[in-house]
Amino acid sequence: MQRNQYITLIAQQFRIHTVCAILGPRQVGKTTLAHAFAQTLKDATAVHAFDLENTLDLARLDNP
Fold it and tell me: Which run of H or E residues covers position 59?
């Protein structure tokens, strides 16, 4: 499924703000959209994704 319109909107928001939230109900593709946006970046290695249901990721955020 193409999400180019949403990826463009996210890019526009990042030009204005330092943080952009993707909100919506469960199972609608928020994480997939975030990963698709990250792949469009020139330096995708600068992207950090954390799964708060993963105990290891949660522990990483506990002690930044």
Answer: helix 55-62
Instruction: Quickly tell me which residue has 């469960």 as its tokens.
Output: 26
* Phi and psi at residue 52, to the nearest 5°: -70, -5
- Is residue 34 within 8 Å of 3, Cβ to Cβ? no
Residues 9-49: tens digit of each pLDDT: 999 999 999 888 999 999 999 999 999 999 999 887 778 88
User: Do residues 9 and 36 touch, judged by C-beta distance below 8 A?
Assistant: no
Instruction: Choose among 47, 37, 39: nearest CA to 5.
Output: 37
Encoded amino acid at 45, one letter: T
Token representation of residue 2: 């193409």
Provide the phi-psi class of 41: left if phi over 0, else alpha when psi is between -120 and 50, else beta: beta
